[in-house]
User: What shape does this take?
Amino acid sequence: MSTRDGVCGFYNGRAYPEMLQPRLTPHSKTEPGMRHVVYVLGACLLAGVLWLAVCRAPSIDERVTWLREHAVELRSLDPSDVDFADLEALGAAIGDARVVLLGEATHEDGAALLAKARLLKYLHQRHGFDVLAWEAGFYDTAKAGEALRTGRPGSGTLQNMLPSWFQSVEARCAAEYVRDTRHTDRPIAFVGIGWYTYGDSHLFDDVVAFFEAVDPALPTPDQRQALVRMRSFLNDLGNHRRPESKTTPPEIEHVEAMIDRLERDPGGNFRDEHGARATGFMRMALENLKAFIQFWYSPRSRGGADENPLGVIEGRNIMFFAQEYFPGRRLIVSAHNGHLARGTAQIEELEKERGYKFNETILTGQRVHDAMGDAVYSLMAIAHGGETNDWSGGPRALSPPPRDSLEDLMHRTGLEYAFVDLRGRPHDHWLRAQLVARPVSYAPMRADWSRVYDGVLFINSMTPTTPADDTP
Assistant: This one.
């Protein structure tokens, strides 16, 4: 690692202090020979500072020792373990934050999903978090949440959400806990932050009924036809070819007209019939449908800010829940580590072929952090080894992480599960220097991770998700 990485905080990418540079002006009376001496002394002093930075950089053994002494060992990831003493340090680090972002390296990381279920129980029972927002469809996740809250399966099911999670035993643990809280004095609301809308979504029927309750002539015939065509399109996504350039399908203007009608609400009819809260929710559901349809009429993303609107959409959804729909309540957001990142401009991807282009992308975590600052606490989940599942469903062994990476250092501590707070470290701490880690689909990247996440959940040996036997 170079001294420019600022291991000891001597440099950290900033200009050297002015006091280290010789101050010679055209009016200086210093003789040319003396001027040369001053420059040489300055150079020597500068070299000495750099040498000290290198010498004082902690060795691997020193870093491992520090982590062994300061990382908080977690007793287990088992959601049935309700002795939360080992999680109190995490609770202290979160403090008064209203939004906690819980990450995962892939959607198929079973052990990480179990950990999230246990953290959900802890944050709900000990710290009053009572909203769980999942990286899944905005409208249908809320329908599933209503089904869990009321115990009426007919009002919505988990099968309308992305199957990566809720067709697995591990993700079901969180959903089952949400269901179990419905008889408590603080039931958990279950909602989605994603734009995902599919042909079997409840939205298409429900939006028609929502408008008809105000005026049987609404939606207009053109708007109804647009909804039918969009539903058919989403049912046939497998045969859709992305265009070479962005196009706008005619259905978009009809969705925009419906959104505008809800926003303006002439005469206050929608608010009188459904209430301002439900009207705002339906408006956001249509905004997500519009964005999702437009996404499929845009060229395939090659990474980068101009081609990745997820950060805008998910960030907007989280802020809607935090500020409008659940004002004053505490939220847990469960999503991929990659979605929850901030400060991505300084991330260096070490496997360029992955093509994420994080350094060009403003993601969900940045949007939320910009809006709420330290009222947000983000936790990235990383693993040293073990297995995960590919999208195809087969198990995949994780390759060993690079030497001296964060995963390598944590593995050397001998801890199976641990929490490390990054936010509370001094600015010159080695954990705030450039380090290699694999938080995004186990691709090695280098960054000052304290500028990307606030804490680390370490799992020494990852286990893959386990398919559930039934349909949720």
User: Anything to note?
Assistant: The longest strand covers residues 376-389. Residues 1-31, 48-55 have pLDDT under 50 and may be disordered.
